[in-house]
Task: structure prediction
Amino acid sequence: MTLIAALPLALTAATLPAEDKPTGEAALAKAVEGREAGKPISCVSMSQLRGSDSIRGTAIVYRSAGSTLYVNRPKGGSSEQLDRDTILVTQTPNGQLCRNDVVNLVDRMTGFQRGFVILGDFVPYKRVPKAS
Result:
């Protein structure tokens, strides 16, 4: 039942003209809106991460236990393979995600691997305090 109800929405989104679809950069800007970029770091602890979102063709946004977002722009154009229908599969023997780690991409619908990305630096984005 849910699948049938979602199908018209999916078809509508797929048929939108290209100029009506947000670009990856626009989607990323919206994701970090109200936040300020910090100094890039090379690793983040997996224990502090609570989830991630793939921004089509642009970046991976990792959510932390606090309010910090970590934006990672994969190296070498590999981010072109990212989208919302991709499951990120990582192997972290040391409990950290680091620059140059390989993240395998699995298609959410078929379960087949469809490529990989190589992580770049992690840029922390923290909320900007509201002026009173």
